[in-house]
Design a protein that fits this description.
By secondary structure, this protein is mainly alpha-helical. Helix content is 77%, strand content 0%.
Length: 476
C-alpha cells in the first residue's frame, strides 16, 4: 500500500516543478505562444489546487478516503493524458485544470490512508517518509523535466500515465476502505468557487494589463471583481459551518503573520523560478536539459538548511530566521540583476545567486510553515496547515502574474536584460516585504485549546496531507 501512495504522490509533486522548466519549450512548439497565455499553464493548476485542497479533504472524510484517492488518481491521470495530447495552449490550460482537480483530491487522501493503516508509534516516521517525496520531487524536478522535455515536452505528462494506471490497479486491491463519515457537514463549495474566481480575476487583470492597458475597462473590471468576490468569500466564510478558511484562526497573531509571510515568500519564489528558466532558455539559449541542470543547485541546498533552521530558530527566534531566509533569497535574486548580462557566464554570474536563493528557501520556508502550524490549537493543526499551503499556492499564482506583468510592461522581447532586471528587482522587493512580515512572528508556542476556533466544524483527517505538502519533512 505504501508504494502505491508514494508513487501517486511523487508524480503529482513532480508536475509542480517539471512544467516550469518545460514552459519555454511548450511556447516554441505552439508557434511562439505569448508568455501571458503560457502563464496560465502554471496558474491554472496552482489556482484550482489551492481552492480545492481543503474542500476535497473534507469531501473525502465524508465519502471515504479510498474512493477519494482512486478518483483523484483517475482524474489526475486523465488530465495528464489530455495535457500530452493538447493541440494548443487553451487545451493545455484546460487539461492542467483537470490535473489540479485530481491532485487536490489525491494528496489529502493519500496521507489519510497512510495514517489509518500505520500504528501510532510509527506515524511520525511514516509522515516524514511521505513528505520526503515532495523534497525529492523538488530536487529531481528540474533535471528530470529537462531530460523528458529534451526528447519532447509531452513526455513530462506521458510519464504519469503508466504510473497512474498501475497505481490504480494495485490500489483497488490493497487500499483499505476507511474514513467514511456521512454526518460531517458538506464543505463550502460555493466559497471555494468564489475564491477561485477572485484570484483568477486578479491574475487575469495583472497578466493582461500590458495588452489591455491599466485604464482599460476589462483590466479595471477584473480588479473590481476580484475585490468584490474576496469580500463575499470572507463574509461567507464567517457564517458557513465548514468554510474553506476558518477565520477565527486568523486572530492568532503568529498564525496570521506566518500566513502572510508564506504568501509573500511564495510570490517571490514563483517569480524567481519562472524568471530563471525563461532567462536561461530564451536569452542565454540553453537547452531545456541544460536549463534544468542550471536550476538544480538551488533545490539541492534546501534540505540541509531546513535541518539547521530548526536549531537556529530555537536560539534566535523563528521570526528572525524566517526574515534572514527572505533576505538571503532576495540577495540571491538581486545578484542576478547586478551581475547577469546577455553574455553567458553561468559560474560567475548566475550560479552564486541560485545557491543563495536555495539557502534562503531552506531557512525561510520550513520555519514559516512550522511556526504557523504550531500556533494553532492541536485540534486545528490539519486545517491550519491546509490554509498555510493554500496561501503558498495563491502566492505562486500571484508571483507568476506579477512577473509576467513586469516583463510585459517593459517590452521584454525588445530589451530582455532591462526587463528581467526590473523583474528581479521586483522579486527582491517582495522578499523584503516577506522579511518584514516574518519579523512579526514570535517564537512558536502551541496555541491553547481555548484559542478561537469554530467548534461545530469537524477537522477532516484527509486534510492532514496539507501539512506534509506545505513543508519539507525536516521542518517537522
Amino acid at each position: 500500500m505504501f508504494a502505491v501512495v508514494i508513487a501517486a504522490v511523487f508524480v503529482t509533486n513532480l508536475d509542480l516543478f517539471v512544467v516550469n522548466v518545460a514552459l519555454p519549450e511548450i511556447g516554441r512548439d505552439y508557434d511562439g505562444a505569448s508568455l501571458e497565455s503560457l502563464s496560465w499553464v502554471l496558474n491554472g493548476y496552482a489556482l484550482v489546487y489551492a481552492s480545492l485542497l481543503v474542500v476535497s479533504g473534507r469531501l473525502a472524510d465524508r465519502y471515504g478516503h479510498r474512493p477519494g484517492f482512486l478518483l483523484g488518481l483517475v482524474v489526475f491521470t486523465a488530465g495528464s493524458a489530455l495535457c500530452a495530447a493538447a493541440p494548443g495552449t487553451g487545451w493545455l490550460i484546460g487539461a492542467r485544470v483537470v490535473q489540479a482537480v485530481g491532485a487536490a483530491v489525491l494528496l489529502p487522501t493519500s496521507l489519510a490512508l497512510l495514517l489509518a493503516t500505520t500504528p501510532q508509534q510509527r506515524r511520525v516516521g511514516a509522515v516524514r517518509a511521505w513528505s520526503a517525496v515532495g523534497g525529492l520531487a523538488a530536487a529531481l524536478g528540474p533535471v528530470l523535466g529537462g531530460l523528458l522535455a529534451e526528447a519532447d515536452w509531452r513526455w513530462i505528462f506521458l510519464i504519469n500515465i503508466p504510473v497512474g494506471v498501475l497505481a490504480f490497479v494495485l490500489g483497488t486491491r490493497v487500499l483499505p476502505d476507511v474514513g467514511r463519515d456521512r454526518s460531517a457537514p458538506m464543505p463550502d463549495l460555493l466559497g471555494a468557487a468564489m475564491l477561485t474566481i477572485a484570484i483568477g480575476a486578479l491574475s487575469l487583470g495583472l497578466v493582461e494589463a500590458d495588452t489591455w492597458t491599466w485604464a482599460d475597462g476589462r483590466t479595471i473590471g477584473c480588479l473590481i471583481a476580484a475585490a468584490v468576490l474576496t469580500a463575499a468569500f470572507v463574509f461567507r466564510s464567517a457564517r458557513h459551518r465548514a468554510p474553506v478558511v476558518e477565520l477565527p484562526m486568523l486572530r492568532i497573531r503568529a498564525f496570521s503573520a506566518a500566513t502572510v509571510a508564506s504568501l509573500l515568500f511564495s510570490v517571490a519564489f514563483a517569480g524567481m523560478l519562472l524568471s530563471s528558466v525563461l532567462w536561461l532558455q530564451d536569452v542565454w539559449g540553453y537547452s531545456v536539459l541544460k536549463a534544468g541542470l542550471a536550476v538544480a543547485p538551488g533545490p539541492l541546498v534546501v534540505p540541509p538548511l531546513a535541518v539547521l533552521s530548526g536549531a537556529l530558530a530555537q536560539r534566535i527566534g523563528v521570526g528572525r530566521v524566517a526574515a534572514l531566509g527572505n533576505v538571503l533569497f532576495g540577495l540571491g535574486v538581486l545578484s542576478w540583476a547586478l551581475l547577469v548580462g546577455t553574455s553567458r557566464n553561468y559560474a560567475a554570474d548566475f550560479l552564486p545567486g541560485m545557491i543563495i536563493t536555495g539557502l534562503g528557501v531552506g531557512l525561510a520556508l520550513p520555519t514559516v510553515i512550522a511556526a504557523g502550524a504550531t500556533a494553532v490549537p492541536p485540534a486545528r493543526l490539519a486545517t491550519g496547515s491546509a490554509v498555510l499551503n493554500m496561501s503558498r499556492q495563491v502566492g505562486a499564482v500571484l508571483g507568476v502574474a506579477v512577473l509576467v506583468t513586469v516583463l510585459g510592461d517593459l517590452g521584454g522581447q525588445n530589451d530582455p536584460l532591462a526587463a528581467f532586471r526590473h523583474g528581479w528587482y521586483t522579486v527582491a522587493g517582495i522578499s523584503v516585504a516577506g522579511a518584514i512580515a516574518a519579523l512579526v512572528i514570535r517564537p512558536a508556542h502551541a496555541a491553547p485549546a481555548s484559542a478561537p476556533a469554530p467548534a461545530s466544524v469537524p477537522v477532516p483527517a484527509a486534510t492532514q496531507a496539507s501539512e506534509a505538502v506545505a513543508a519539507p519533512p525536516t521542518a517537522r
